[in-house]
């Protein structure tokens, strides 16, 4: 069974600084995907970034990058130049090659201070 | 373009009643997923459709929960004899189709907040 662990219930960051949100995963699958979603107070889950298990380079999408360390089974999200609008809950999730379902972690609440 | 839509956005019902929650996926997406999110938790998988058929319903908590997708587009999640523990946000997502994790990102709707009194 897959499991996602996010050990930081809450994080603070100063506006314009970078922040790293931690995610570790546990899977026996050879092929899998790792995702990060943002959930603002409005409730909608917004896709941010994806990393495939066979991708050799870390994924990047604008201010978001994924620090993928396969041997350590970690997939940390790095947000550069934080903005006030980044304040939200962030979820890490995994997708097995054998199933279609996402397995989510408990989430990390990020607050950006002006 | 239009994203995933869900109706109603809020539903308040009484214990024991029947409810239906609707999901309209992104046009052209063949895969559709239902998740349930309790307060302060990550979403939990309920059921996944590929086309009209349920490819995996292992997350449905019991036989009070049922979902259909008769024409391979809109889906309805049905809950019979609702209980207070069913109160949660029900999220729907869709993706192009199951092509493996390298290609299949799930896009979520705004959710339906269900409150059972």
Task: Tell me about this structure.
The complex is a heterodimer of chains A (about 110) and B (about 120). Chain A has about 110 residues and is an all-beta fold. Chain A has no helices and 12 strands. In chain A, strands 2, 5, 6, 10, 11 and 12 form a 6-stranded mixed sheet that branches. Chain A has a 4-stranded antiparallel sheet with strand order 3-9-8-7, with no helix packed on it. Chain A has a two-stranded antiparallel ribbon with strand order 1-4. In chain A, strand 10 and strand 11 form a beta hairpin. The model of chain A has no long low-confidence stretch (mean pLDDT about 95). Chain B has about 120 residues and is an all-beta fold. In chain B, about 0% of the residues lie in helices and about 45% in strands. Chain B has no helices and 11 strands. In chain B, the strands form 2 sheets. In chain B, strands 2, 4, 5, 6, 9, 10 and 11 form a 7-stranded mixed sheet that branches. A 4-stranded antiparallel sheet of chain B has the order 1-3-8-7, with no helix packed on it. The interface between A and B is medium-sized, with 30 and 31 residues.
Q: How many DSSP H or I helices of chain B?
A: 0
Query: Low-confidence stretches of chain A at least 5 residues in length (pLDDT < 50)?
Result: none
Biggest beta sheet summary of chain B: 7 strands, mixed
Rg of chain A, please? Answer: 14 Å
Helical percentage of chain A? under 10%
What helical percentage do the residues of chain B reach?
A: under 10%
Strand content of chain A: over 45%
* Strand/helix succession of chain A: EEEEEEEEEEEE
Strand content bin of chain B: over 45%
Structural class label of chain A: mainly beta
């Amino acid at each position: 069974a897959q499991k996602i662990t996010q050990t930081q219930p809450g994080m603070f960051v100063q506006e314009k600084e970078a922040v790293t949100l931690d995610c570790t995963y546990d899977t026996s699958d050879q092929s899998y995907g790792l995702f990060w979603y943002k959930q603002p107070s409005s409730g909608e889950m917004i896709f941010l970034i994806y990393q495939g298990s066979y991708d050799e380079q870390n994924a990047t999408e604008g201010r978001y990058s994924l620090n993928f360390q396969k041997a350590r089974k970690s997939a940390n999200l790095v947000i550069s130049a934080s903005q006030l609008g980044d304040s939200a809950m962030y979820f890490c999730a995994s997708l097995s090659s054998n199933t279609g379902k996402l397995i989510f972690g408990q989430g990390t609440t990020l607050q950006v201070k002006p | 373009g239009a994203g995933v839509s869900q109706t109603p956005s809020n539903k308040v019902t009484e214990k024991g009643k029947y409810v239906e929650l609707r999901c309209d996926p992104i046009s052209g997406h063949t895969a559709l997923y239902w998740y349930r999110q309790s307060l302060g938790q990550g979403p939990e998988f309920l059921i996944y459709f590929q086309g009209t058929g349920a490819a995996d319903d292992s997350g449905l908590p019991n036989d009070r929960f049922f979902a259909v997708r008769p024409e391979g587009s809109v889906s309805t999640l049905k809950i019979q004899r609702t209980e207070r523990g069913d109160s949660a946000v029900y999220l729907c997502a869709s993706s192009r189709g199951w092509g493996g994790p390298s290609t299949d990102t799930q896009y979520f709707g705004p959710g339906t907040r269900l409150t059972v009194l």
